[in-house]
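Consider the tokenized backbone below.
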């Protein structure tokens, strides 16, 4: 009954406003409760020994999944650094992968050492198990963010094919050599042209807002280069607007919203960025008061894991108080264990 209620609430929230993470939280929680109920039904009526083996097997599968994900992230991180060069943001997937593999190995070592009845080994294992609570929360949120982002991108692509829009806002990205549109930004602009063409086929005549200021390493604003790119590909000058003050995504959308209102454009809009960034951009689009949806340009597969992790970290930052509160509560067992050791 609880899982049905959670799923229904999640579905209603998603129908009302999908540009939020809350519907995904309810839906994922409902699925988790459903899995827990099914698991309990499977082991109910069985012997204690059978239930113990079932739980042990489930734990081993989860641990193997953590290790496999960690190894995949390390491989991807090495590949990404090889292509893009070393940097803090380019090392996120490799760093997370190392942490996951390290945790999995530590648990295995702790279990094996615990068989020797060593008090120190048992203490280490207890610490790792207590650490699993806040770590499990972060993993749960990561799964929600990645899963909901994927679904939202698919939904946005469907809307872009079936619905006309009155405006298209393209979020800027760094310019190549500080002067020209590079591949990443070009993909966004090409996607905007596709959406504009489809809207014209459906009877609308949308404007495209190129949104992006001038970075410290750029000779001109991103909006200027973007508008030039669109004009060269046949977009009429009277359907092009440039927003050249913004320095981040929130400003992109806030200033673009002001520009749309100033030009008396109050209908539905599509915000275009790369697919990994679509959901977070859509949440900011909602906060800026822009009606519509986000839609994404394709991104190189090798770049996606690192980009998804970066978006996840940004979403945790955007919801910093909720994240901090949850981590503090879930870290209480870990703190008690550590206090016990000190005492």
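A designed sequence for it:
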């Amino acid at each position: 009954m609880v899982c049905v209620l959670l799923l229904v609430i999640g579905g209603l929230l998603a129908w009302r406003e999908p540009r939020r993470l809350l519907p995904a939280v309810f839906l994922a929680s409902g699925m988790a409760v459903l899995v827990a109920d099914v698991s309990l039904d499977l082991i109910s009526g069985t012997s204690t020994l059978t239930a113990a083996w079932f739980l042990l097997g489930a734990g081993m599968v989860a641990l193997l999944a953590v290790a496999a994900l960690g190894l995949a992230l390390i491989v991807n991180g090495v590949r990404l650094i090889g292509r893009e060069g070393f940097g803090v943001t380019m090392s996120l997937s490799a760093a997370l992968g190392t942490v996951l593999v390290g945790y999995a190995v530590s648990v295995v070592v702790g279990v094996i050492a615990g068989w020797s009845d060593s008090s120190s080994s048992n203490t280490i294992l207890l610490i790792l198990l207590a650490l699993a609570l806040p770590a499990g929360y972060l993993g749960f949120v990561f799964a929600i963010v990645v899963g909901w982002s994927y679904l939202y991108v698919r939904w946005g692509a469907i809307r872009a094919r079936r619905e006309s829009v009155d405006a298209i806002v393209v979020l800027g990205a760094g310019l190549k050599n500080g002067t020209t549109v590079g591949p990443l930004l070009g993909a966004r602009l090409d996607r905007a042209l596709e959406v504009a063409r489809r809207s014209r086929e459906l009877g609308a005549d949308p404007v495209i807002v190129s949104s992006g200021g001038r970075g410290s390493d750029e000779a001109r604003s991103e909006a200027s280069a973007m508008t030039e790119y669109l004009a060269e590909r046949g977009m009429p000058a009277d359907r092009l607007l440039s927003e050249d003050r913004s320095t981040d995504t929130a400003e992109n959308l806030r200033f673009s919203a002001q520009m749309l209102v100033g030009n008396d454009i109050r209908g539905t809009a599509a915000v275009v960025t790369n697919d990994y960034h679509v959901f977070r951009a859509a949440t900011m689009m909602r906060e800026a008061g822009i009606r519509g949806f986000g839609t994404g340009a394709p991104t190189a597969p090798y770049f996606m894991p690192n980009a998804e992790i970066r978006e996840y970290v940004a979403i945790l930052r955007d919801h910093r108080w909720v994240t901090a509160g949850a981590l503090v509560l879930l870290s209480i067992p870990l703190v008690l264990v550590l206090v016990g050791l000190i005492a």
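The longest helix spans residues 119-162.
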